[in-house]
Design brief:
Layout lengths: L1 E5 L7 H11 L5 E5 L5 H13 L3 H22 L3 H23 L4 H8 L1 H16 L4 E4 L15 H14 L5 E5 L2 E3 L5 E3 L5 H11 L5 E5 L20 E3 H9 L10 H7 L3 E5 L8 E4 L6 E18 L8 H11 L7 E3 L3 E6 L5 H8 L3 E17 L10 H4 L5 E9 L2 E7 L3 H14 L6
Parallel strand pairs: 1-2, 1-7, 2-4, 3-4, 7-9, 8-10
Antiparallel strand pairs: 5-6, 9-10, 11-13, 11-14, 12-13, 14-16, 15-16
Helix pairs in contact: 2-3, 2-5, 3-4, 4-6, 8-10
The protein binds adenosine-5'-diphosphate (ADP), aspartic acid (ASP) and magnesium ion (MG).
């Protein structure tokens, strides 16, 4: 069985839902993972924020506006009167539930419950749409099998067991529809896999059922060699290895949630990226095969904080690095990049929740400097250390203030830390040099 995930744009209009219907109606049995319709999760987050800040009448207004959009969409999507009435009823219930939150004290749980509604709505609408079209589909409620553990990792054993037994208890179907993104936490409360998490849902399910393939259907023709939101003339890559894709996703390529690759890499399940609007385009196939040498793609991750930690002694004393890392470990804060000199270590983090506590501890044995609003630019490819393009990269970026460089950590990655204000310029310059052969060294 294959797992096919469709993102927000793919389920964001009646026209696109029809595309999805065509793609999934090939007669093969499959699990289909859906995101919320595009814009919905952002709208729900706004509603949650409005409630959090006590702006009740604004919250009611936002809820009503979103509800009206949904009722209109249901009317456009469903001709069948019974199904339409049933889905409108469902939509009203979901939005009444949102209004109920106004009367309750606000908490993180309120937020999690609110943002879960997008996927509940899209899957319910789409499953009834398939029913109208005479397609044999069943809804698989994600909250009955998708769970994360105390460390926020997927609880794979629980997921596999519950998913299998759910499928066995439902009537036999060609297509099982489930919600991406949402899940339960270790004590059974609703939570989620973070923004863009439907991709991760798809590969977690793919691993649980040992799928032949996991397909991520989105609004672009595959993984591009640079970020198409910021750079002109990017092109789709036909092949990537798991390691390359994982690295790019981790360092900001929005097309994949950062954790997506891990579950399929472990079981060697091919991961394919396709365009819902151009289903015949090749897309990108991600496997353990490595194709070609040199820089294959570039990604950038914003919201990075750089921390320079200088030993109070002149030389890096024995045990200094250990002490530094222990502080970050205590606060469960992952480090992305690291470079050292004789007297200092520079590193980057993107989770600043505990930054104040971390710096307070570091100050006990070192001096600390902090730079915010930084971006990591990550260049990925096979054997890039030895490739002819690599030595010239610093020439290409000679006018950019490169704050840190990680080179040599692996054979397939070079990371550069720049001010976020220099990111666009850097990405475009690298694009010209690496992929378009335009070199202007003066
Ligand atoms: P979905 O809603 O289908 O999950 P996303 O918006 O999450 O879609 O991801 C697809 C978008 O990711 C593309 O439209 C594109 O703007 C953006 N993107 C960023 N980096 C890349 C990249 N390297 N290749 C392709 N798309 C990228
Ligand atoms: N709807 C969620 C989001 O917007 C999850 C996803 O689209 O993958 O982040
Ligand atoms: Mg996405």
């Amino acid at each position: 069985m294959n797992v096919l995930k469709f993102g927000g744009t793919s389920v964001g209009s009646v026209v696109n839902m029809n595309h999805v219907k065509e793609i999934i109606s090939d007669g093969d049995r499959k699990i289909v993972v859906l995101s919320a319709m595009s814009g919905t999760t952002n709208a729900l987050i706004d509603i949650s924020e409005t409630l959090k800040t006590g702006r009740t009448s604004d919250a009611v207004h936002h809820i009503k506006t979103l509800r009206n959009t949904y009722v209109e969409r249901v009317n456009d999507l469903l001709r069948d009167e019974h199904l339409r009435a049933e889905v409108v009823d469902y939509v009203q219930n979901v939005f009444n539930g949102l209004v109920e939150h106004i009367r309750q004290p606000y908490s993180q749980q309120t937020h999690n419950n609110i943002v879960a509604c997008g996927e509940l709505l899209s899957t319910y609408m789409f499953s009834r749409f398939l029913q109208q079209e005479g397609i044999n589909a069943e809804l698989l409620p994600a909250l009955e099998f998708m769970r994360i553990d105390v460390t926020k990792e997927p609880d794979n054993f629980y997921i596999k067991q519950n998913l299998e037994s759910l499928i066995n208890t439902l009537p036999e179907a060609d297509i099982y529809i489930t919600q991406g993104f949402i899940c339960l936490d270790s004590i059974g409360n609703i939570t989620n896999l973070q923004r863009g998490g439907s991709d991760y849902t798809a590969t977690i399910i793919g691993a649980a059922i040992e799928a032949e393939e996991v397909q991520i259907w989105t609004d672009i023709d595959g993984f591009h060699n640079n970020d198409p939101r910021f750079v002109n003339e990017t092109t789709a890559l036909s092949y990537l290895s798991y390691d390359e894709a994982a690295e790019l996703a981790y360092f900001g390529a929005k097309i994949l949630h950062p954790q997506t690759v891990m579950p399929v890499r472990q079981l060697d399940i091919p991961l394919r990226l396709n365009n819902t609007m151009q289903p015949d385009a090749h897309g990108t196939l991600i496997t353990n095969q490595i194709h070609g040498d040199g820089i294959k793609a570039i990604a950038a991750k914003d919201g990075i904080t750089a921390i320079k930690i200088k030993s109070v002694r002149m030389l890096l004393a024995h045990g200094f690095l250990k002490k530094v890392f222990e502080v970050f470990e205590r606060y469960e804060t992952p480090i992305d990049m690291i470079t050292t000199s004789e007297i200092a270590v520079s590193l980057t983090i993107d989770d600043t929740t505990n930054l104040e506590a971390i710096t307070n501890e570091l100050w006990q044995f070192a001096t600390v400097e902090i730079d915010n609003d930084m971006s990591i630019i990550c260049l990925v490819g096979n054997q890039i250390m030895h490739h002819q393009d690599t030595p010239q990269l610093f020439q290409v970026l000679k006018d950019v203030n490169v704050r840190m460089i990680a080179y040599g950590g692996s054979n397939n990655n070079i990371s550069l830390l720049v001010n976020t204000s220099d990111k666009l310029d850097s990405l475009q310059k690298l694009q010209h040099y690496v992929f378009e052969g335009e070199v202007e060294f003066v």
